[in-house]
Every structure is written in structure tokens, then in C-alpha cells.
């Protein structure tokens, strides 16, 4: 999962008006027509690896409207240059860096700047990596339930993923009785997939990191019966559909 942050677009009309007011009348005709809005530059990041007190992160800088070649600079706190790349195409520049947890969150701020034949583009919005990587609570836990009919028989699966949150994020499959049935800690940006073979009832997904805990709404999982032998796959599938229909009708009564 890549998180993208774009710098706000500056109004070219306001820039032109301010320039016109400050330009002597004799030079105003020369100024009209040469004012150009500097293309915005975006910054995004993706967590590659998670360590106990560090993260390997890929930061991407993109000035999509700047004509190549474009020189991209990744800068940190106090305008310290971390790395630089020259891109001869319209592709964005990517920087892989290792970020270590520090005592001062302000030291973990990164932003992009670019230069082309049009001039300097940026700076971009600033990434507060301490907040993104260590202090961001989990939010909006999404749950998807799928029932697939395969050669080996029907298989139920529940997929869980939080839309945001500092890594690592652990996912728990919890029943309505409070029991934790399964637990996973997938790579950052990837969902947790729980196989529900032989399980049915009400379940919810719980996501937690070092900052907070969030739970999804409970979802009803119908019973799934596997066929006894491969030759009865079709009959087993029909029986499963009928059993699920009857069971769901009974639960609503």
C-alpha cells in the first residue's frame, strides 16, 4: 500500500495578479504571457520492511508535468539533502532509505524538491514519518467474505485490512463470544486472509498496533460442508447451497 501526499496547488491567477501589481507599467506588457504556474510535486511512501526500531521505506517523488530531464532531491529536517536522482523520462524518482526511531519526532521529516528547464518545483508536502510509522492509530477496518466453489469443495475466506495505521499491524479473527480463533501479522499494506473451513457463525476482524485497536462490525458466516469424496463434488455443492439457504432462513426467524 502506497500512501501519497500532494502539495497544495498554488493559484496561477493570484500569482500573476501579484506580479502585475508589483511590475512597473513600462514592463507590464513584457510580463503578460510569460507567467507560468510551476507544476506541483507529490510525495508518497511505501513500507518495505519492519524492524524493531526501524523501517525500510521507499519514498517516491513525482513532478509529473515537469519536462525531463528532472533532477529530484530528497531532503530531510533542516533542509539536509538525503539523496538526489536525475530522471531522463517522466517516471518518478524513488529513494529507498532506512528510518530509525529517534528521540525527536521532528528529525523524521522528509520532503521532495525537483528542478527542470522550467525552474524549481516544490517543495512537496512534508512527510512526518514518526507519525506515519510509529504513532498512527489503525482506522477503518474493512472486511470481505468470499465463498468459492473449488474442485476440493467450497471454501470460505474472510479478508481483513485497515486503511491506515503504523506498522506492524496484527489482525485477529474474533467470535461473538469474545474468543480469538486466528491471528495474523501480514506485511504492511497487505490484508490478513483467514480460512474458515468448518467454521460458521458471527465473526469480526480486530486490527491492532502499538497505538490503538479497531474492530469491524460482526459478519455472519454461513456453514460450509465439504464433500466426502471427489466424485460427489457437484452433489456436495448443491447440498451446500441448500443447507446455507435453510440455515440463513432459520437464523432470521
UniProtKB/TrEMBL annotation:
Coiled coil: none annotated. Pfam families: Ig_C17orf99 (PF17736). The keyword Glycoprotein applies. The keyword Signal applies. The chain crosses the membrane at residues 228-249. It comes from the Eukaryota. Keywords: Glycoprotein, Membrane, Signal, Transmembrane, Transmembrane helix. PROSITE patterns: IG_LIKE. This is Uncharacterized protein C17orf99 homolog isoform X4. It comes from Castor canadensis.
Amino acid at each position: 500500500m502506497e500512501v501519497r501526499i500532494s502539495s497544495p496547488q498554488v493559484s496561477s491567477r493570484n500569482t500573476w495578479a501579484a506580479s502585475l501589481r508589483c511590475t512597473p507599467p513600462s514592463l507590464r506588457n513584457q510580463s503578460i504571457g510569460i507567467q507560468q504556474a510551476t507544476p506541483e510535486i507529490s510525495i508518497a511512501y511505501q513500507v518495505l520492511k519492519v524492524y524493531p526500531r526501524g523501517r525500510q521505506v521507499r519514498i517516491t517523488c513525482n513532478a509529473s508535468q515537469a519536462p525531463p530531464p528532472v533532477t529530484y532531491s530528497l531532503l530531510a529536517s533542516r533542509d539536509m539533502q538525503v539523496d538526489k536522482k536525475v530522471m531522463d523520462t517522466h517516471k518518478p524518482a524513488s529513494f529507498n532509505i532506512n528510518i530509525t526511531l529517534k528521540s525527536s519526532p521532528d528529525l523524521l521529516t522528509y520532503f521532495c524538491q525537483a528542478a527542470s528547464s522550467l525552474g524549481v518545483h516544490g517543495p512537496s508536502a512534508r512527510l512526518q514519518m514518526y507519525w506515519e510509522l510509529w504513532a498512527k492509530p489503525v482506522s477503518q477496518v474493512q472486511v470481505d467474505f468470499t465463498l468459492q466453489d473449488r474442485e476440493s469443495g467450497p471454501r470460505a475466506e474472510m479478508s481483513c485490512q485497515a486503511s491506515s495505521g503504523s506498522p506492524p499491524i496484527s489482525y485477529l479473527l474474533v467470535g461473538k463470544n469474545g474468543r480469538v480463533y486466528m491471528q495474523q501479522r501480514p506485511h504492511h499494506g497487505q490484508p490478513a486472509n483467514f480460512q474458515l473451513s468448518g467454521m460458521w457463525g458471527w465473526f469480526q476482524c480486530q486490527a491492532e498496533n502499538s497505538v490503538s485497536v479497531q474492530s469491524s462490525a460482526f459478519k455472519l458466516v454461513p456453514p460450509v460442508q465439504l464433500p466426502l469424496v471427489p466424485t460427489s463434488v457437484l452433489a456436495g455443492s448443491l447440498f451446500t447451497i441448500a443447507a446455507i439457504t435453510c440455515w440463513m432462513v432459520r437464523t432470521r426467524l
